[in-house]
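If you are new to this repository, start here. Below is one unmodified record pulled from the training split, so you can see the exact layout before writing a loader.
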Amino acid sequence: MITIRPGSRVQRLLFVLSIAGEFPIKSLHLLGQPRDLKKLIRRLEKVEEYRAHRTGPVIKTRLVIVSGKNPMRSIRLYKSALHILNELHPEAFSYYMDAFGGHNFPGDIFHLQRNHRVSEVLAMCMMAGLEIRPYILPKLQKTSIQHIVPDFPCFYIARDFKKIDAAEMNKTQFTRIVGALFYPSGVFAIYNTRDTVMKWSGMGEFKTAHYLLELTRMNAGLNDFPSAMLLGNNPNIALQTLIESDKSRRLEMRFDRIYQHIHFIPLDQDGIRLMKILTTPDWNEKILSVLFTPEMRPAGYGFMEYDAYWNKTYIYSHLDSDIARLVRFKEALVTQEDQFEVLCYSWQTVFLEKYLGERVVIKQLEMDMLEKSLGLNKCF
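And here is the target side for that same chain:
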């Protein structure tokens, strides 16, 4: 018998499947050790007895089914196992049935890839300690200014917040946004490029960003324009996505014009840790305070993007993985002859060396040090 304990690998998988419908086999590393998870999936494909609570009912069934071919192999809930969702939360089963038309999935590649993009983001957020379950979270609204969103980091899937306003639905339904990540001092629009360059739908994303701004104002009492997180397997792919938006005929429709800050989040354990850092209240000021003394910090707005000045050297921190800001920093290098230094994590080094060239000195910092300074616990 398998007991679905809080925080167990089975429970994590069920949470993601109850919201996204399916999960890609190739992304099991986001939920833990891939080898152990593959063994678990093979067991879940066989008939077993399941119990969600010590006193709960025992359900005998297969839990999941795996279909498709690499790289599109996908995990879905087995039909006779759907009612086990009621044991996770009273509204989980009804949410699932409504979202997926009674357990019916379109067979086209577009819907499959969309579900995979969503499920990867859900897994990342969940492992970073964010609340992802829409049947737990209070529903967003657009009738009055209220404080609806919780005081802890949480992720709202785009499928749900796009339906709040029927008029806005027509404007935003075909955009690439996966969801919105709210935290106590801000909000991120979430995109997932995976391992391909994301083609940018300029006007649609522009409308979506402003719709998200309005939702944030009405439900979180915040007026700051949203930033974006761009998830992907490779920072070069993320950068190409940003550059691809240069092809827009209207300059204001560029990705980095719509969102002034675009944080690249790798689809791995480093990305999960970075996501937790970026959802800490006032994370930017806290990071800069850890890195630099007040004497090193610039006063007011400068002529370029930098975070500190010391010993005749301009110091730029890429610890937030903001590729939009990085592009602006590189553009400024062309006209400057000063000394420059960039702080980064070890997994960013190769990318930055190739992108910035020999002109800039790259210095690595360990993420453990920053997490400890911010008082953050390990995500996994």
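Two things worth knowing about this chain: The chain has a mean pLDDT of 89. The first strand starts at residue 2 and ends at 3.
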